[in-house]
């Protein structure tokens, strides 16, 4: 039966102020039940304050074959990495 | 006990009986739903049903510990069929997924309406208990309604199965609104709401869900009563045999 159901990606905000983070995926016949399945599968131990579900088919993914041209050039350009700044203590989650 | 002043022994008995009714409803339905574990149509539904089951067993723990003076396990595992006070609806076999959903729609809609009113009880324990549990029961009610609508308004086969599931469970609905002497005693002192006051609201709510599910409201059948007095169907004995076997065979077992 689940093979007939579309796949949904699940994003959970674990507490106020943080971003939604990808938790995994669920099968569900529609958006409303996808939310419920996501709740029952990923927030059973009260890990969440908010859930997003997105049809997996709506995700546009980069091509792993292009990983070289997309990501490699940045690795050896140390001047692109802002590591020479002092970060104030008050700034969290950077 | 919430009522401190000269306590009428009859009220104490009736309150105890009422806690058993509520606790046994949750315990037996929780045990029934746990039978789905590993057998549900899909993994996600397996988790949903297990969650409902665990919520109900949590409710039963609170209610039976209150009834048993801190020892809920004794009541859960060392009583026989005739001493159980649950309604007949919750002990009915799971059948297929549609019948389980039908049973859950009929029960959790009633339980939700009851718990909403229990938050106004004169009994402090029941106010605290229901204020917490009413939220999870609201979720049970919504989930059962969502599935009823999808199965009823689904394929020919799912609609047929949903209609059969409702038909099977329908004769156990009148018991939910039955008021006997024991219940009357706790209604009179404000501990329990009178279920007859929300029977109309209940029937309209169920009819609205069934209309959305494109299903007929089942025809009324001869009601079957007796669970509240310990007169159970043959199914409950089998549920208890499975549930009570371990603690009865190994009374000192811990886990």
From TrEMBL, chain A:
It is an enzyme of class 1 (oxidoreductase). Gene3D superfamilies: Phenylacetic acid degradation B. It holds the Pfam family PaaB. Keywords: Oxidoreductase. GO terms for molecular function: phenylacetyl-CoA 1,2-epoxidase activity. Its EC number is 1.14.13.149. This is 1,2-phenylacetyl-CoA epoxidase subunit B.
């Amino acid at each position: 039966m689940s093979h007939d159901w579309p796949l949904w990606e699940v994003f959970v905000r674990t507490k106020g102020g943080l971003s939604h983070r990808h938790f995994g995926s669920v099968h569900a016949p529609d958006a409303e039940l996808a939310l419920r399945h996501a709740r029952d599968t990923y927030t059973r131990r009260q890990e969440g304050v908010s859930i997003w579900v997105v049809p997996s088919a709506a995700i546009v993914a980069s091509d792993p074959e292009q990983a070289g041209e997309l990501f490699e050039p940045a690795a050896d350009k140390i001047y692109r990495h802002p590591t020479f700044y002092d970060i104030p203590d008050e700034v969290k989650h950077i | 006990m919430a009522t401190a002043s000269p306590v009428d022994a009859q009220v104490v008995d009736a309150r105890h009986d009422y806690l058993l009714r509520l606790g046994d409803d949750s315990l037996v339905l929780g045990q029934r739903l746990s039978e789905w574990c590993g057998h549900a149509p899909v993994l996600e539904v397996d988790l949903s049903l297990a969650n409902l089951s665990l919520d109900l067993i949590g409710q039963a723990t609170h209610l039976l510990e209150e009834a048993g003076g801190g020892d809920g396990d004794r009541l859960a595992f060392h009583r026989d069929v005739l001493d159980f006070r649950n309604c007949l609806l919750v002990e009915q076999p799971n059948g297929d997924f549609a019948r389980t959903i039908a049973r859950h729609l009929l029960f959790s809609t009633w339980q939700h309406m009851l718990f909403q009113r229990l938050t106004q009880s004169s009994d402090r324990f029941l106010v605290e208990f229901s204020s917490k549990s009413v939220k999870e029961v609201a979720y049970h009610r919504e989930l059962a309604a969502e599935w009823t609508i999808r199965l009823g308004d689904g394929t020919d086969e799912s609609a047929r199965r949903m209609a059969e599931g409702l038909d099977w469970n329908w004769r156990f609905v009148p018991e939910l609104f039955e008021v006997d002497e024991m219940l009357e005693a706790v209604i009179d002192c404000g501990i329990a709401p009178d279920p007859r006051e929300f029977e109309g609201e209940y029937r309209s709510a169920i009819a609205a869900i069934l209309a959305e599910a494109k299903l007929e409201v089942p025809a009324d059948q001869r009601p079957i009563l007796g669970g509240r007095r310990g007169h159970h169907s043959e199914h409950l004995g089998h549920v208890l045999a499975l549930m009570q076997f371990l603690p009865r065979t190994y009374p000192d077992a811990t886990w």
